[in-house]
Amino acid sequence: MPASEPDRVPGHRAARFPVVDPATGKTFDEAPDQQPDELDSVVDRARRAWHGWRADPAARTTALRVAADAVEAAGEDLARLLTREQGKPLTESYAEIARTAARLRYFADLAPRTRRITDGRPVDSEIRWRSLGPVAAIVPWNFPLQLAAAKFAPALAAGNTVILKPSPFTPLATRLLGSVLATVLPEDVLTVVTGREPLGARLASHPGIRHVTFTGSVPTGRTVAEAAAASLARVTLELGGNDAAVLLDDVEVDRIADRLFWAAFRNCGQVCMAVKRVYAPARLHAQVVEALAERARTVAVGPGLDPDTRLGPVNNAPQLARVEQITRRALADGARAAAGGHRPAGRGNFFAPTILTDVPPDSPVVTEEQFGPVLPVLPYRSLDEAVDAANGTGFGLGGSVWGTDLDRAEAVADRLECGTAWINHHAELSLAQPFAGVKDSGVGVAGGAWGLYGNLRPFVVHRPQEV
């Protein structure tokens, strides 16, 4: 598979680091711990591969379509390994593989448009598009393959080469994906590197990288931006979210409760654009809390490889500690757990699905991103109060409004300070739409044609109409 130099030297065994199964808390495999000084040769090979890859758009289209087929053919192996290292239910891993293949097909058929400018001068001006060069794609542990494809598919379609670094918590499925794609892509067009820090920081700051695309936390995103600034590389940052769901006073609670619950708890709440706060009218607040708590109490929690599991473990020990700490703080501040609120007995990184009520509005579980199976439900007395609260954090990734009067709900959604607003659903995206956050939730745009053009630069040619 594409890898760094030590993996290509016969007889050389690179340093390795353990990979933990979050369902058991035990190490089940290892991955190469590649070192920052190995990146020079990786980036150099990507730069040399770029010259051929950018030259033939038709060949790129064909290669990306074949790559999508290869991903689907390897779906079972990829899905099982993804569940083993990430923790999500196997059905969700299969869905992630499907979305990975779908992104490759979508961007394979997307091409930049040349544009001519007519402005009255005796000159024909034409805007063409050129690729950037080697792209660094740094991916988190919650959707390792799906988010990787969201970065490398548009970058490759635009004619760039890609160096892909997964989280050290989930390196194995990405390495397998890299080996699958290596069978259908030219050598060094897509390279997977794995390792612990400072590998990611060095990749972001490498002078041969022309675009850094990163998904992760706000603090790490700031660090990545600072590193990329050293070489003036372009950055696309998809950072944290603290999405609010605002329920209107005409909402039918029983009708929307399932959708609202899974909008918050899919992938054990480890979704950047999951619902992380619910604002309910005061007269409906108790009903909303109980409807969500009933689902939290009865949902099947367990290892992702168990076919009955609907909710898996938290991916890693540091994140589990964060979820536990932020929940304990809320309970200490006067919140009440209508469901969950604790770690269950037994092995693994499990945390009971938790619905919190009576939460102080300034509690960190409300103002920060908990990124786990914990959901505060807060009452409001006026709609202006709810909208102000929804907009009252430094985040601005997504938000949603729930009610039966769609025109009214849309008017409220238009007041939310976020990149995407949904009505009566949440966290559903089309491959064709832009995806971006405001405030601390991101810089740049991913998705659709915007994602393609984010990996290109304009090149203008002026030609006189007469000699």
From TrEMBL:
InterPro entries: Ald_DH/histidinol_DH (IPR016161), Ald_DH_C (IPR016163), Ald_DH_CS_CYS (IPR016160), Ald_DH_CS_GLU (IPR029510), Ald_DH_N (IPR016162), Aldehyde_DH_dom (IPR015590)
Active site: E238
Species for this entry: Streptomyces griseoloalbus
Record domain Aldehyde dehydrogenase: where: 15-452
Compositionally biased spans, kind Basic and acidic residues: 1-10
Record keywords, A-Z: Oxidoreductase
Cited Gene3D superfamilies: Aldehyde Dehydrogenase, Chain A, domain 1, Aldehyde Dehydrogenase, Chain A, domain 2
Keyword Oxidoreductase recorded: yes
Ranges in coiled-coil conformation: none
PROSITE patterns assigned to the protein according to its UniProt record, in alphabetical order: ALDEHYDE_DEHYDR_CYS (PS00070), ALDEHYDE_DEHYDR_GLU (PS00687)
Protein family: Belongs to the aldehyde dehydrogenase family.
UniProt xrefs under SUPFAM superfamilies: ALDH-like
GO terms for MF: oxidoreductase activity, acting on the aldehyde or oxo group of donors, NAD or NADP as acceptor
UniProt entry tagged with the keyword Oxidoreductase: yes
Region (Disordered): 1-36
Designated name of the protein: Acyl-CoA reductase-like NAD-dependent aldehyde dehydrogenase
Any Pfam family: Aldedh
